[in-house]
Amino acid sequence: NSGKKKYLSKTPKLRVSLFAVLLFLVVSLGDEETVETYNKYYNYVDLTGRLKSLAEKYPRVANLSSIGQSVEGRELWVMRITKDPNSDTPGKPKFKYVGNMHGDETVSRQVLVYLVEYLLTKYGEESRITELVNTTDIYIMPSMNPDGFEKSREGDCSGDNGGRNNAKNMDLNRSFPDQYDETRVNPADIPEVMAMIRWIQEKKFVLSGNLHGGSVVASYPFDDSASHQRQGHYSQSEDDSLFRYLALVFSQNHPVMKTGEPNCPEALEEIFTDGITNGAQWYDVPGGMQDFNYLYGNCLEITMELSCCKYPLASELHKEWDLNRESLLAYIEKVRIGVRGYVKDAITGTPLANVSIVVASIRHNLTTGKYGDYYRLLLPGTYNITAVAPGYIAMEVHSVQVLEGKATELNFTLAPVVNEAAGGIPVTTYSMPSTNDPNLSTTTNSSDSTQTRPIQPQEFRHHNYADMEMFLLKYSSEFPSIVHLYKIGRSVEDRELYVMVISDNPTVHEHGEPEFKYIANMHGNEVVGRELLLNLIEYLCRNYGTDPEVTQLVNNTRIHIMPSMNPDGYEVATEGDIKGYKGRNNSNNFDLNRNFPDQFITITEPRQPETIAVMNWLKSIPFVLSANLHGGSLVVNYPYDDDKQGLSRYSQSPDDKVFQQVSRAYSQENPFMHNGHPCQDLYQDEYFEDGITNGAKWYNVPGGMQDWNYLNTNCFEVTIELGCVKYPMAKDLPQYWEQNRRALLQFIHQVHSGVKGTVSDMRDGTGIPNATISVEDIDHNITTAHTGDYWRLLVPGTYYITASAHGYTPMRTYVTVPKGRVEVLDFRLTRVHSDSNGQSPKGPQPTQNPSEKEFQKLSGFMRISAVQIGSVFHNLTYNTALYSGFFSSVSSLGQSVEVRTIWALEISNKPGEAEPSEPKIRFVAGIHGNAPVGTELLLEFAFFLCINYGKNPAITRLINETRIVIVPSINPDGREQAVEKQCTSIQGLTNAHGKDLDTDFFGNASQRVVEAQPETRAMMDLILDKAYTLSVALDGGSLVATYPYDKPVQSVENEGTLKYLASVYANNHPKMHLGGTGCSNNEQMGNIPDGVMRAAERQSHMGSMKDFSMDFGHCPEITVYSGCCLFPPAEQLTPLWAENKKALLSMLVEVHKGVRGVVRDKSGKPIVGAIIVLNGGVRVFTSEGGYFHALLAPGNHNIEAVADGYQQQRQEVVVSSYEAAVSIIIEFDMDNSIFGLPREFVVASAAASMTALVVTACIIWCVCAAKSNRQKDGFHRLRQHRDDYDDEIRLTSMGSKKSLLAHEFQDESESDEETLYANKI
Length: 1321
Fold this sequence. Notes:
The chain is an alpha/beta fold. Strands 1-2-4-3-5-8-6-7 form an eight-stranded mixed sheet, sandwiched between helices. It has an eight-stranded mixed sheet with strand order 18-19-21-20-22-25-23-24, sandwiched between helices. The chain has an eight-stranded mixed sheet with strand order 36-37-39-38-40-43-41-42, with helices on both faces. A hairpin with a 2-residue loop joins β51 (about 1235) and β52 (about 1235-1240). The model is unreliable at about 1-35, about 420-450, about 835-860 and about 1265-1320 (pLDDT under 50). This is Carboxypeptidase D. Keywords: Carboxypeptidase, Glycoprotein, Hydrolase, Membrane, Metal-binding, Metalloprotease, Protease, Signal, Transmembrane, Transmembrane helix, Zinc. GO terms for molecular function: metallocarboxypeptidase activity; zinc ion binding.
């Protein structure tokens, strides 16, 4: 540095120690005061030092990092400039500049270094720069090709000295995946491009500039065309006007560029109107970076050519900086135009990533980032904009005004669709390219693969069941972001059948992403596949994010790996077994690969638990491709596995060519397999051409798994024999991995071949599940998955493909399938009976009401306080009435001690109206304020029901036919005292008077020592409305469902039914029914059979709400403890809701079961108040209209009906767990007996008795009248003793009142009815 040298020349020569101190101070000062001179180029070392120095000096706004390395190991440096550069802040759009892509085009490299320094030094001084840095996430990469720069020579204007390409001589701007051409590039040769692809797809940049040299012009997409005409072909993108505008922003701020006349010596005739050009019109550039950004990266990028001379002399640099400074700044500022906002879940409020933002009339969508944020650059105008995501109802906003300047803010909240019910599920309306390009699945030769230096597995040994389980748990814990471990069932000996799924979003099926699986160890003594799959798990996990191929596979595929389908057989197999059978079969001694249903013969052996588990698994996930790994030979075997006549001959499937293709993809990567001569020492005559064979041609296998896959699911499966020795020695395992590792990866790549797309409804964009995809001349159809997406494996060629679905007009088109990649083909089907307005047939459809955006005000899982419940319920009621077409009702049950309202919500198509024929169910929560998880779940449940009314047929029917009452918080005072994340705290358990409300429910005066708490009284009044059929109470602190009673009783009448009701909830909960649900934070330890227990066995106590509901409300109530933590953190609520949603819905269904009916007399008059006695014990009463409904466990039951003045009736009913309630009609005859005697005799006797009584009364009256005159004086004398007489009357009256009170307030349990009911229950 010249400044530093000048300073040192003036320093006096002192003794060495003093000189050293001064030198240190001077060097430090010189570093701090270094000022850019704009007169030299920075080589790699200079560039690294300069960038590091700036990052250290401005840490509050600058962060330096590398996104990868060049071929020669140089870092690809990126300077991030924004406020708080070490954290990701939502709300700031991401912008990038990339320079020096061609190593000999060097002006961009220096100009970008100057821009970095300018932004950092002017931050805090100039308001324009300060605002830009504060509101934008700016990334600047000065050199994408540092190796090429080092080869270039200063003054070389035309690039004659080399340096344009990277160190592998690859042109980086011809090496990106292209929309028109199949780019054939070895990824190992272009690490710079692979790093850029990862970076672009990860960051989701909004706007970008790619800086080059060789002319002076701004070029915009597309860079090439389908015809690849060398020049003159305008290749227009969907955002052509916007790209032209962005290019003009740069060119019009550049004094030379805006003239349109670069006057470059080698092209003096070249003129660009306004200094801009369409890329392909200038010249065709296949594989360019700007097109990749637009098509696959969510980002709009243009290419700026900054100077005619590619590598001008350093003395020109200051001029170039002055020419480009304003253009560079003005272009960055355009990242804030158009529309911006967030997309969130309407229920949980959580941000939604990868939601498509669709602008009507512009067929190019972009997607939201990880915070649900999006930035859609648009020119000023009026637009209709829709947010679309699989599993959610699309939300469209009309007439969005975009003005010049800063972006219009537009937020979306999407309501989820019920996946359990039948019917369409909304998906992306418009076709859009995947943000993870399948074209990247280029073949990497085995010889070249070492150049990427992936991490290889380190542990090669045999894993028994315990070792395998530990291995899987370890990787599940170590790589939770890409790994999910689950179980599909158990073996005969009760070992888990584990599956590990590896993907960037491993827990869910992502729309458009294919499902792939490997299964091994089906025969327990064939163990190589088991160990290879464990090696594969380690390889994928440890190389994700660093190895391009692994990262691409994991990001674009959901890979399921089952290391062992027969863990029992493995445990008895013996190491060193070459061709034996010990351990081959399962523990019941059945061959699992002969146990599946077969197309040609009937399999008579009983279906084994392992087989059943796999069949259920394959039906539940839309697998596309699979391999079943075996041992005993070295070949890939494809369907069919058997022949109709049972002969060993070629048995061809309709997709024979596809099966041969995917089989060769594996075998050709395993040289020993591909040569076709396996196991010469064991089977000398065996030969398989190319290392593949048709299964039946080799030998017949009836009941095989691969054929069942193909014939019964969408999945194409082959069987791979991995080696001649079934159970090799552990020392040989490394060579098996080395022989098969490339083949295992290449086979997964095959899932990205053929055709894929979405079948949706033309009218509303709803995905159509179970639509049929048929290919002409191939007699094998596949069907779409739940959100309408499909994958159809095909060999390269041109096909006619038809999509059809019930109720829609089929659509047929042709498609050309390219080699080595998948072709996207979407279908939009028209309903058969649509009217002229495009309306669907009558009946609710899962479509979106344009005004549904109002539901964004409904927030679930946001820790609603007790005082907010009322306003939330009122808003919900208003919006459901306005937009869903039905009315819910909010009411106050009473107030707490601290005068908080206890709210109730009734959800019904006719709330407030008496509908005795409909069952009525009560959901309550929050009796213990320190366990508010139930409150949150019920609020979410209410939102879920209301939002899906009219859209989901099942939910709509349930609401129409059920009266649902939800009381989310019985103890609002306690809820306000409770503390979040306190799993065991008792703070808030009681009400404000310190009373545990679940010990305050007493119906008898003799049992109550103090007056009921106000919260208790409110609930008792609700319960005493005897119209309820079932009640479900939610609590926390355990994971179990309990049934009555809480009080200690010797036996419980009707216990079978009560236990059954609790088991319905537990069985529909993914964890509860397993029984091993002990919570370390309470007394619930050990195994709880089926997750159900009698309440008293858990914690016996008197005065519970459950017992009061049973004894006085005549309504069974179960209490569900939904989790071990009493007050879990908010982030745990979403998974808790997912666990409980199905169980809550199951109770809505269950309330419609049992037995129901009407009681009437012979004339048809309904009898109200009749007693229905169930199995000689439990009683229910008929309500208005004579209706009754009783829940009963499945089985045979005796029904007795009793009513005063009528003959008793008896009936037997059979209740099924799969059917709605048994409906019966009970008709009463008049009872003609009185006191057991004939009615006529009793009436005659009564008449005679009355006549005799009247005669006797007349005689007595006459006698008394005769004596009355003689007794007058006596009466007069009695009046003289009035005081004594009054005293006597007073005593007599007191005695009478005492008797009356005693009768009026006697113990209620003394009544015959109550005593009988209490004893029987």
